[in-house]
Amino acid sequence: MKNLRNDLEERGFLHQFTNEKVFEQFEKWGEKFYFGVDCSANSMTIGNFVALMMAVHFMLRGNKCYLLVGGATSTIGNPSGKDDERPILTEEDLARNQAGIEAQFKRLIDNVASITGKELEYEIVNNYDFHKNMNVLDYLREVGRYMTVNWMINKSIVKDRITDPNKSISYAEFSYMLIMGYDYYHLFKNEWVTLEVGGSDEWDGILAGIELVSKKDGAEVFGVTNKLIVDANGKKFGKSEGNAVWLDEAKTSPYEVYQYFINTLDADIERYLKLFSFLSDEDISEVVQEHEKVPEKRQGQKFLAKTIIEMVHGKPQAEVSEKISEFLFGSQDKLELLKWLSSEEFELFYQEIGGIQYTDQNLFGMFTQSWLEQSGGTARQSLQNGALHINEQKIEDGHYDFSADFIDGKFLLIRKGKKNYRIVKK
Protein backbone atom coordinates (compact mmCIF):
# COMPACT_ATOMS: atom_id res chain seq x y z
CA MET A 1 0.00 0.00 0.00
CA LYS A 2 1.27 3.49 -0.85
CA ASN A 3 1.81 5.90 1.98
CA LEU A 4 -1.14 8.14 2.71
CA ARG A 5 0.27 11.37 1.33
CA ASN A 6 1.34 9.84 -1.99
CA ASP A 7 -1.95 7.99 -2.34
CA LEU A 8 -4.05 11.14 -1.81
CA GLU A 9 -1.83 13.18 -4.13
CA GLU A 10 -1.68 10.63 -6.95
CA ARG A 11 -5.42 10.04 -6.79
CA GLY A 12 -6.00 13.76 -7.27
CA PHE A 13 -7.46 14.71 -3.88
CA LEU A 14 -4.77 16.74 -2.19
CA HIS A 15 -5.06 20.52 -2.32
CA GLN A 16 -4.16 22.28 0.93
CA PHE A 17 -2.74 20.95 4.17
CA THR A 18 -1.35 22.67 7.22
CA ASN A 19 1.66 20.47 7.98
CA GLU A 20 3.37 17.40 6.54
CA LYS A 21 3.21 15.81 9.99
CA VAL A 22 -0.49 15.10 9.53
CA PHE A 23 0.25 12.35 7.03
CA GLU A 24 2.79 10.66 9.27
CA GLN A 25 0.36 10.79 12.19
CA PHE A 26 -2.62 9.43 10.25
CA GLU A 27 -0.54 6.82 8.47
CA LYS A 28 -0.74 4.98 11.78
CA TRP A 29 -4.05 3.56 12.94
CA GLY A 30 -6.17 4.85 15.81
CA GLU A 31 -6.24 8.61 15.13
CA LYS A 32 -9.43 10.69 14.99
CA PHE A 33 -10.60 13.28 12.47
CA TYR A 34 -13.81 14.90 11.36
CA PHE A 35 -15.65 15.81 8.19
CA GLY A 36 -18.48 18.37 8.26
CA VAL A 37 -21.59 18.60 6.09
CA ASP A 38 -23.90 21.59 5.88
CA CYS A 39 -27.61 20.85 6.36
CA SER A 40 -28.96 23.39 3.88
CA ALA A 41 -30.57 20.43 2.04
CA ASN A 42 -31.62 16.91 3.04
CA SER A 43 -28.98 15.37 0.82
CA MET A 44 -25.32 15.56 -0.01
CA THR A 45 -24.29 16.15 -3.60
CA ILE A 46 -21.76 14.45 -5.83
CA GLY A 47 -19.58 17.45 -5.01
CA ASN A 48 -19.68 16.50 -1.30
CA PHE A 49 -18.83 12.98 -2.40
CA VAL A 50 -15.34 14.09 -3.44
CA ALA A 51 -14.45 15.26 0.09
CA LEU A 52 -16.21 12.27 1.58
CA MET A 53 -14.10 9.90 -0.52
CA MET A 54 -10.96 11.61 0.74
CA ALA A 55 -12.24 11.04 4.28
CA VAL A 56 -12.78 7.37 3.44
CA HIS A 57 -9.09 7.02 2.57
CA PHE A 58 -8.21 8.24 6.07
CA MET A 59 -10.70 5.73 7.50
CA LEU A 60 -9.22 2.88 5.48
CA ARG A 61 -5.96 3.50 7.38
CA GLY A 62 -7.72 2.57 10.62
CA ASN A 63 -8.65 6.10 11.74
CA LYS A 64 -12.03 7.06 13.18
CA CYS A 65 -14.18 9.62 11.36
CA TYR A 66 -16.64 11.94 13.08
CA LEU A 67 -19.30 13.05 10.61
CA LEU A 68 -20.40 16.46 11.84
CA VAL A 69 -23.83 17.51 10.59
CA GLY A 70 -24.23 21.26 10.82
CA GLY A 71 -27.36 21.77 12.89
CA ALA A 72 -25.85 25.00 14.25
CA THR A 73 -23.85 26.28 11.27
CA SER A 74 -26.77 25.60 8.92
CA THR A 75 -28.89 28.16 10.75
CA ILE A 76 -26.47 30.78 9.36
CA GLY A 77 -24.99 29.29 6.20
CA ASN A 78 -21.43 29.24 4.93
CA PRO A 79 -20.76 32.64 3.25
CA SER A 80 -17.97 31.13 1.12
CA GLY A 81 -18.72 31.60 -2.57
CA LYS A 82 -22.02 33.37 -1.86
CA ASP A 83 -22.97 36.93 -2.70
CA ASP A 84 -26.05 37.01 -0.46
CA GLU A 85 -27.17 35.43 2.77
CA ARG A 86 -28.92 32.09 2.61
CA PRO A 87 -32.57 31.82 3.68
CA ILE A 88 -33.22 30.88 7.31
CA LEU A 89 -34.29 27.24 7.73
CA THR A 90 -37.06 26.18 10.10
CA GLU A 91 -36.39 23.65 12.86
CA GLU A 92 -38.46 21.12 10.91
CA ASP A 93 -36.37 21.67 7.78
CA LEU A 94 -33.14 21.29 9.73
CA ALA A 95 -34.31 18.08 11.41
CA ARG A 96 -35.34 16.59 8.06
CA ASN A 97 -32.09 17.61 6.41
CA GLN A 98 -29.97 16.21 9.22
CA ALA A 99 -31.79 12.87 9.12
CA GLY A 100 -31.33 12.63 5.35
CA ILE A 101 -27.58 13.33 5.48
CA GLU A 102 -27.02 10.92 8.37
CA ALA A 103 -28.84 8.11 6.52
CA GLN A 104 -26.79 8.74 3.38
CA PHE A 105 -23.51 8.67 5.26
CA LYS A 106 -24.36 5.39 6.99
CA ARG A 107 -25.41 3.79 3.71
CA LEU A 108 -22.31 4.95 1.88
CA ILE A 109 -19.92 3.75 4.60
CA ASP A 110 -21.72 0.38 4.72
CA ASN A 111 -21.32 0.08 0.95
CA VAL A 112 -17.62 1.01 1.10
CA ALA A 113 -17.08 -1.56 3.86
CA SER A 114 -18.78 -4.19 1.70
CA ILE A 115 -16.66 -3.29 -1.35
CA THR A 116 -13.32 -3.10 0.49
CA GLY A 117 -13.94 -5.83 3.06
CA LYS A 118 -12.79 -3.44 5.79
CA GLU A 119 -14.67 -2.31 8.86
CA LEU A 120 -14.72 1.48 9.03
CA GLU A 121 -15.08 3.27 12.35
CA TYR A 122 -17.22 6.39 12.55
CA GLU A 123 -19.55 8.39 14.74
CA ILE A 124 -22.18 10.97 13.78
CA VAL A 125 -22.37 14.20 15.79
CA ASN A 126 -24.46 17.36 15.47
CA ASN A 127 -22.78 20.68 16.19
CA TYR A 128 -26.09 22.07 17.49
CA ASP A 129 -25.40 19.99 20.60
CA PHE A 130 -22.08 21.83 21.08
CA HIS A 131 -23.65 25.28 20.97
CA LYS A 132 -27.23 25.04 22.20
CA ASN A 133 -26.48 25.74 25.88
CA MET A 134 -24.09 28.65 25.28
CA ASN A 135 -25.43 32.17 25.66
CA VAL A 136 -23.88 35.14 23.88
CA LEU A 137 -21.69 36.07 26.86
CA ASP A 138 -20.36 32.52 27.12
CA TYR A 139 -19.59 32.59 23.43
CA LEU A 140 -17.76 35.88 23.51
CA ARG A 141 -15.69 34.68 26.46
CA GLU A 142 -14.95 31.15 25.20
CA VAL A 143 -14.48 31.91 21.52
CA GLY A 144 -14.65 35.61 20.60
CA ARG A 145 -11.82 36.81 22.84
CA TYR A 146 -9.37 34.41 21.17
CA MET A 147 -10.12 35.36 17.55
CA THR A 148 -9.06 38.78 16.32
CA VAL A 149 -11.04 40.76 13.76
CA ASN A 150 -7.77 41.46 11.94
CA TRP A 151 -7.23 37.72 11.43
CA MET A 152 -10.84 37.11 10.32
CA ILE A 153 -11.13 39.90 7.76
CA ASN A 154 -8.03 38.69 5.96
CA LYS A 155 -9.66 35.34 5.21
CA SER A 156 -11.30 35.05 1.79
CA ILE A 157 -14.54 33.78 3.32
CA VAL A 158 -15.03 37.35 4.65
CA LYS A 159 -12.65 39.46 2.57
CA ASP A 160 -14.47 38.83 -0.71
CA ARG A 161 -17.67 40.22 0.79
CA ILE A 162 -16.29 43.34 2.48
CA THR A 163 -13.96 44.59 -0.24
CA ASP A 164 -16.63 44.63 -2.96
CA PRO A 165 -18.78 47.79 -2.67
CA ASN A 166 -21.73 45.90 -4.17
CA LYS A 167 -21.67 43.19 -1.49
CA SER A 168 -22.01 43.04 2.24
CA ILE A 169 -21.82 40.52 5.05
CA SER A 170 -23.96 40.34 8.17
CA TYR A 171 -22.53 39.88 11.64
CA ALA A 172 -24.11 36.40 11.68
CA GLU A 173 -22.22 35.28 8.57
CA PHE A 174 -19.08 37.04 9.78
CA SER A 175 -19.33 34.82 12.87
CA TYR A 176 -19.65 31.62 10.84
CA MET A 177 -15.91 30.98 11.18
CA LEU A 178 -16.20 31.24 14.96
CA ILE A 179 -18.82 28.52 15.06
CA MET A 180 -16.72 26.29 12.83
CA GLY A 181 -13.71 27.05 14.99
CA TYR A 182 -15.53 26.04 18.16
CA ASP A 183 -16.68 22.81 16.49
CA TYR A 184 -13.04 21.85 16.07
CA TYR A 185 -12.14 22.91 19.61
CA HIS A 186 -15.05 20.95 21.10
CA LEU A 187 -14.12 17.77 19.22
CA PHE A 188 -10.46 18.21 20.11
CA LYS A 189 -11.18 18.79 23.80
CA ASN A 190 -13.80 16.04 24.19
CA GLU A 191 -12.83 13.41 21.60
CA TRP A 192 -9.14 14.18 20.95
CA VAL A 193 -9.86 14.88 17.25
CA THR A 194 -6.75 16.35 15.62
CA LEU A 195 -7.70 16.74 11.95
CA GLU A 196 -10.49 18.25 9.87
CA VAL A 197 -10.85 17.26 6.22
CA GLY A 198 -13.10 19.06 3.75
CA GLY A 199 -13.51 20.80 0.44
CA SER A 200 -11.33 23.73 -0.56
CA ASP A 201 -14.19 26.14 0.25
CA GLU A 202 -13.95 25.04 3.92
CA TRP A 203 -10.30 26.07 4.28
CA ASP A 204 -10.87 29.30 6.21
CA GLY A 205 -13.22 27.58 8.64
CA ILE A 206 -10.67 24.82 9.17
CA LEU A 207 -7.99 27.42 9.87
CA ALA A 208 -10.30 29.08 12.40
CA GLY A 209 -10.53 25.83 14.32
CA ILE A 210 -6.78 25.33 14.25
CA GLU A 211 -6.28 28.90 15.45
CA LEU A 212 -8.74 28.50 18.32
CA VAL A 213 -7.25 25.20 19.51
CA SER A 214 -3.78 26.75 19.40
CA LYS A 215 -4.85 29.90 21.28
CA LYS A 216 -6.88 28.11 23.97
CA ASP A 217 -4.79 24.96 24.52
CA GLY A 218 -1.50 25.54 22.77
CA ALA A 219 -1.97 22.27 20.87
CA GLU A 220 -1.18 21.53 17.23
CA VAL A 221 -4.01 20.18 15.10
CA PHE A 222 -4.28 19.84 11.34
CA GLY A 223 -6.38 20.51 8.25
CA VAL A 224 -6.49 18.93 4.78
CA THR A 225 -8.69 19.91 1.84
CA ASN A 226 -9.41 18.34 -1.52
CA LYS A 227 -9.14 20.05 -4.89
CA LEU A 228 -12.11 21.56 -6.66
CA ILE A 229 -12.81 19.00 -9.38
CA VAL A 230 -13.50 20.15 -12.94
CA ASP A 231 -13.76 18.05 -16.07
CA ALA A 232 -11.41 18.19 -19.07
CA ASN A 233 -13.46 21.10 -20.48
CA GLY A 234 -13.23 23.10 -17.25
CA LYS A 235 -16.85 22.44 -16.21
CA LYS A 236 -17.41 22.15 -12.47
CA PHE A 237 -17.87 18.55 -11.39
CA GLY A 238 -21.27 17.58 -10.05
CA LYS A 239 -23.46 19.83 -12.18
CA SER A 240 -25.88 18.39 -14.70
CA GLU A 241 -27.59 20.90 -17.01
CA GLY A 242 -27.09 23.56 -14.34
CA ASN A 243 -28.50 21.41 -11.54
CA ALA A 244 -26.69 19.66 -8.70
CA VAL A 245 -26.39 15.87 -8.84
CA TRP A 246 -27.74 14.65 -5.48
CA LEU A 247 -27.01 11.46 -3.54
CA ASP A 248 -30.66 11.23 -2.48
CA GLU A 249 -32.45 8.94 -4.92
CA ALA A 250 -35.64 10.99 -4.55
CA LYS A 251 -33.78 14.06 -5.87
CA THR A 252 -31.52 12.37 -8.44
CA SER A 253 -32.35 8.76 -9.21
CA PRO A 254 -29.54 6.18 -9.31
CA TYR A 255 -30.13 5.86 -13.04
CA GLU A 256 -29.74 9.63 -13.51
CA VAL A 257 -26.44 9.53 -11.60
CA TYR A 258 -25.42 6.58 -13.79
CA GLN A 259 -26.21 8.60 -16.92
CA TYR A 260 -24.27 11.58 -15.55
CA PHE A 261 -21.15 9.43 -15.44
CA ILE A 262 -21.91 7.74 -18.76
CA ASN A 263 -21.44 11.23 -20.23
CA THR A 264 -17.93 11.49 -18.76
CA LEU A 265 -15.34 12.66 -21.26
CA ASP A 266 -12.84 10.01 -22.33
CA ALA A 267 -10.05 12.21 -20.99
CA ASP A 268 -11.58 12.10 -17.48
CA ILE A 269 -12.13 8.34 -17.06
CA GLU A 270 -8.75 7.58 -15.50
CA ARG A 271 -8.87 10.64 -13.24
CA TYR A 272 -12.38 9.86 -11.98
CA LEU A 273 -11.54 6.19 -11.35
CA LYS A 274 -8.67 7.33 -9.15
CA LEU A 275 -11.02 9.57 -7.18
CA PHE A 276 -14.08 7.33 -6.99
CA SER A 277 -12.79 3.77 -6.82
CA PHE A 278 -10.33 1.78 -4.75
CA LEU A 279 -8.67 0.19 -7.75
CA SER A 280 -4.90 0.05 -8.02
CA ASP A 281 -3.05 2.03 -10.69
CA GLU A 282 -2.58 -1.19 -12.66
CA ASP A 283 -6.29 -2.06 -12.59
CA ILE A 284 -7.27 1.48 -13.59
CA SER A 285 -4.80 1.39 -16.49
CA GLU A 286 -6.31 -1.89 -17.63
CA VAL A 287 -9.82 -0.40 -17.66
CA VAL A 288 -8.60 2.63 -19.62
CA GLN A 289 -6.68 0.50 -22.14
CA GLU A 290 -9.70 -1.72 -22.79
CA HIS A 291 -11.84 1.38 -23.25
CA GLU A 292 -9.42 2.91 -25.73
CA LYS A 293 -9.62 -0.15 -27.99
CA VAL A 294 -13.27 0.62 -28.82
CA PRO A 295 -14.09 4.01 -27.23
CA GLU A 296 -17.42 4.23 -29.05
CA LYS A 297 -18.75 1.43 -26.79
CA ARG A 298 -18.07 3.66 -23.75
CA GLN A 299 -16.93 0.71 -21.66
CA GLY A 300 -14.80 2.96 -19.44
CA GLN A 301 -17.77 5.24 -18.69
CA LYS A 302 -20.01 2.25 -17.98
CA PHE A 303 -17.48 0.77 -15.59
CA LEU A 304 -17.06 4.13 -13.83
CA ALA A 305 -20.81 4.73 -13.56
CA LYS A 306 -21.53 1.27 -12.17
CA THR A 307 -18.66 1.56 -9.67
CA ILE A 308 -20.01 4.84 -8.29
CA ILE A 309 -23.64 3.72 -8.09
CA GLU A 310 -22.55 0.58 -6.23
CA MET A 311 -20.77 2.77 -3.68
CA VAL A 312 -23.50 5.39 -3.30
CA HIS A 313 -26.68 3.33 -3.64
CA GLY A 314 -25.57 -0.30 -3.43
CA LYS A 315 -24.95 -3.17 -5.81
CA PRO A 316 -28.63 -3.94 -6.68
CA GLN A 317 -29.22 -0.32 -7.74
CA ALA A 318 -26.00 -0.35 -9.78
CA GLU A 319 -27.09 -3.45 -11.66
CA VAL A 320 -30.57 -2.06 -12.33
CA SER A 321 -29.17 1.29 -13.53
CA GLU A 322 -26.92 -0.61 -15.95
CA LYS A 323 -29.90 -2.60 -17.24
CA ILE A 324 -32.04 0.53 -17.67
CA SER A 325 -29.26 2.15 -19.70
CA GLU A 326 -28.91 -0.96 -21.84
CA PHE A 327 -32.69 -1.08 -22.28
CA LEU A 328 -32.92 2.53 -23.47
CA PHE A 329 -29.74 2.79 -25.51
CA GLY A 330 -28.40 -0.71 -26.13
CA SER A 331 -29.15 -3.37 -28.70
CA GLN A 332 -30.32 -6.10 -26.33
CA ASP A 333 -33.80 -7.56 -26.80
CA LYS A 334 -35.91 -5.30 -24.62
CA LEU A 335 -38.72 -7.74 -23.93
CA GLU A 336 -36.28 -10.46 -22.93
CA LEU A 337 -34.52 -8.05 -20.59
CA LEU A 338 -37.82 -7.15 -18.92
CA LYS A 339 -38.90 -10.78 -18.61
CA TRP A 340 -35.81 -11.70 -16.61
CA LEU A 341 -36.05 -8.89 -14.09
CA SER A 342 -36.82 -9.73 -10.49
CA SER A 343 -39.97 -8.16 -9.06
CA GLU A 344 -37.84 -5.55 -7.23
CA GLU A 345 -35.89 -4.72 -10.39
CA PHE A 346 -39.09 -4.47 -12.39
CA GLU A 347 -40.51 -1.93 -9.95
CA LEU A 348 -37.35 0.18 -10.28
CA PHE A 349 -37.65 0.00 -14.06
CA TYR A 350 -41.28 1.04 -13.83
CA GLN A 351 -40.44 4.03 -11.62
CA GLU A 352 -37.59 5.18 -13.86
CA ILE A 353 -39.10 4.63 -17.29
CA GLY A 354 -42.61 5.55 -16.25
CA GLY A 355 -45.93 3.97 -16.97
CA ILE A 356 -49.50 3.46 -15.87
CA GLN A 357 -51.74 0.92 -14.26
CA TYR A 358 -54.03 -0.79 -16.76
CA THR A 359 -57.73 -0.11 -16.08
CA ASP A 360 -59.43 -1.22 -19.30
CA GLN A 361 -58.17 1.72 -21.34
CA ASN A 362 -58.59 1.51 -25.08
CA LEU A 363 -55.56 1.82 -27.34
CA PHE A 364 -55.56 5.60 -27.64
CA GLY A 365 -56.48 6.09 -23.98
CA MET A 366 -53.50 3.96 -22.94
CA PHE A 367 -51.03 6.03 -24.97
CA THR A 368 -52.60 9.28 -23.78
CA GLN A 369 -52.69 8.39 -20.07
CA SER A 370 -49.08 7.23 -20.23
CA TRP A 371 -48.14 10.74 -21.49
CA LEU A 372 -46.75 9.40 -24.73
CA GLU A 373 -49.55 11.29 -26.47
CA GLN A 374 -51.23 14.58 -25.68
CA SER A 375 -54.69 13.52 -26.84
CA GLY A 376 -56.64 10.91 -28.72
CA GLY A 377 -56.25 13.04 -31.84
CA THR A 378 -52.44 13.06 -31.70
CA ALA A 379 -52.51 9.31 -30.97
CA ARG A 380 -54.54 8.67 -34.14
CA GLN A 381 -52.07 10.76 -36.13
CA SER A 382 -49.16 8.76 -34.68
CA LEU A 383 -50.96 5.52 -35.57
CA GLN A 384 -51.29 6.65 -39.18
CA ASN A 385 -47.57 7.51 -39.20
CA GLY A 386 -46.65 4.04 -37.92
CA ALA A 387 -45.21 5.40 -34.65
CA LEU A 388 -47.19 3.36 -32.08
CA HIS A 389 -45.88 0.00 -30.87
CA ILE A 390 -46.94 -2.61 -28.33
CA ASN A 391 -44.32 -5.15 -27.27
CA GLU A 392 -42.13 -3.88 -30.13
CA GLN A 393 -44.80 -4.64 -32.74
CA LYS A 394 -46.15 -1.77 -34.85
CA ILE A 395 -49.88 -1.16 -34.40
CA GLU A 396 -51.87 -0.24 -37.50
CA ASP A 397 -55.47 -0.70 -36.33
CA GLY A 398 -57.02 1.83 -33.95
CA HIS A 399 -59.37 -0.87 -32.68
CA TYR A 400 -56.60 -3.36 -32.03
CA ASP A 401 -57.38 -5.67 -29.08
CA PHE A 402 -54.20 -5.94 -26.99
CA SER A 403 -55.78 -7.69 -23.99
CA ALA A 404 -53.97 -10.95 -24.81
CA ASP A 405 -50.59 -9.25 -25.27
CA PHE A 406 -49.70 -8.80 -21.59
CA ILE A 407 -46.39 -10.57 -21.01
CA ASP A 408 -46.86 -13.32 -18.42
CA GLY A 409 -50.25 -11.70 -17.91
CA LYS A 410 -48.52 -8.82 -16.08
CA PHE A 411 -47.33 -6.00 -18.31
CA LEU A 412 -47.09 -4.42 -21.74
CA LEU A 413 -44.23 -2.44 -23.21
CA ILE A 414 -45.54 0.44 -25.29
CA ARG A 415 -43.51 2.79 -27.44
CA LYS A 416 -43.98 5.92 -29.51
CA GLY A 417 -41.35 6.54 -32.15
CA LYS A 418 -37.89 5.10 -31.61
CA LYS A 419 -37.02 5.87 -28.00
CA ASN A 420 -40.13 6.82 -26.01
CA TYR A 421 -41.13 3.87 -23.83
CA ARG A 422 -43.66 3.24 -21.08
CA ILE A 423 -44.65 0.18 -19.08
CA VAL A 424 -48.31 -0.68 -18.58
CA LYS A 425 -48.93 -2.86 -15.52
CA LYS A 426 -51.93 -5.04 -14.88
Structural class: alpha/beta
Shape: elongated
The top-level CATH class of the largest domain is Alpha Beta
**CATH fold title of the largest domain:** Rossmann fold
Give the strand content.
Answer: 5-15%
Tell me the helix content.
40-55%
Counted beta strands: 13
Task: Give the CATH superfamily of the largest domain.
Answer: HUPs
The whole-number mean of residue pLDDT values reads: 90
Q: What is the alpha-carbon Rg in Å?
A: 26 Å
Number of domains as seen in the coordinates: 3
Q: Regions with pLDDT < 50 over 5+ consecutive residues?
A: none
Terminal Cα separation, in Å? 54 Å
Task: Describe what this molecule looks like in 3D.
By secondary structure, the protein is α/β, with parallel strands linked by helices. It has 3 domains: 4-226, HUPs (Rossmann fold, 3-Layer(aba) Sandwich); 239-336, Tyrosyl-Transfer RNA Synthetase; 354-425, RNA-binding S4 domain (Structural Genomics Hypothetical 15.5 Kd Protein In mrcA-pckA Intergenic Region, Chain A), CATH 3.10.290. It has 20 helices and 13 strands. It has helices spanning 4-11, 21-27, 46-59, 91-116, 128-131, 136-142, 149-153, 156-162, 171-174, 176-191, 203-217, 254-262, 269-276, 281-293, 299-312, 315-329, 334-339, 343-353, 363-369, 376-384, and strands at 14-17, 32-38, 64-70, 122-126, 195-199, 222-226, 239-240, 243-244, 355-357, 388-390, 393-394, 411-416, 420-425. It has a 6-stranded mixed beta sheet, sandwiched between helices. It has a 5-stranded mixed beta sheet with strand order 9-13-12-10-11, with helices on both faces. The radius of gyration is 26 Å and the shape is elongated. The termini are far apart.
